[in-house]
Specification:
By secondary structure, the protein is α+β, with helices and mostly antiparallel strands. The chain is built from seven helices and ten strands. A four-stranded antiparallel β-sheet has the order 1-6-7-5. Helix 4 crosses helix 7 and helix 6 crosses helix 7. It binds a DNA duplex (16 and 16 nucleotides) through loops.
Length: about 280
Amino acid sequence: MPELPEVETIRRQLAPAVEGRRIEDMEVLDQRWSAPALGVEAADAVRGRRIDKLDRRGKYLVWELSGDVHLVMHLRMTGNLLYTDDARFVRVRIRLDDGGSVVFADQRRFGTGVVLLGGDARDDYFASRLGVEPLSADFTADHIRELARGRRAPAKAFLLNQERIAGVGNIYADEALFIARIHPLRPIGTLRGKQFDALRAAVVEVLEAGIDARGATIDDFRHTDGASGAFQDRFLVHLRAGEPCVRCGTTIKKIRAAGRGTYLCPRCQRAPRAA
DNA sequence: CGCGCAACCTGTCTGC
DNA sequence: TGCAGACAGGTTGCGC
């Protein structure tokens, strides 16, 4: 589903088309979209503003508008942002001053959008939800070690927790743990020194590979022009239960970890003692 | 506080 | 063939 590489792919594709344009109108067809501050309707808050920058934080997409207004979107699981004026399941339509349009389409209506008035409100919004950006210089083995200290949460749950590391979801967590040879149920606080290095490197590697492949399309994710990503063809363990491990040939297994379908090589990723 | 889990939602797949 | 139930998953909120 849309994780960091998928959202980054959308950002890169959409930014050239929208940055510098003005929003002529925003048509809100799903009432989950709101402006919590000042009782201002979302559409009224953004109308006429210039799009200064399209940014990303974790799995969130941020439209930085003139006048210090920020439109923050989250695609959740089935949301898509398409550069077109029509599609199935359109929840929001943004018309640009050059005649172009962007629609937020979401089959399951899980996707959300919120207008935040002022950079401070935007910063507060993210500060309470998101941890370190895994592709930034702050994402070091020492940083992960600090986050993991004393915690008994399974490694998989740790990676999925956006308050610690922002942007890793179910696909990339499985792939990173396989590369780092860490069992998904291993309590994160019991990792040894070198394993933190391996985990950092693996997370960076899979996220960059995902971006290079322009994201993974399993069911719903699409590029802004409707095309599919390619990273699903490079999965090492995710969705590969019953197939041989690319490293040792052992049959890939599917288990449940952190309430999610989780794929691993039982030989490369040795089980923790008590779990 | 830390952790697990249900809820949110809807389309698709599985089993009877 | 039909239908009920399971499953998919990012985030939030609740309970222990």
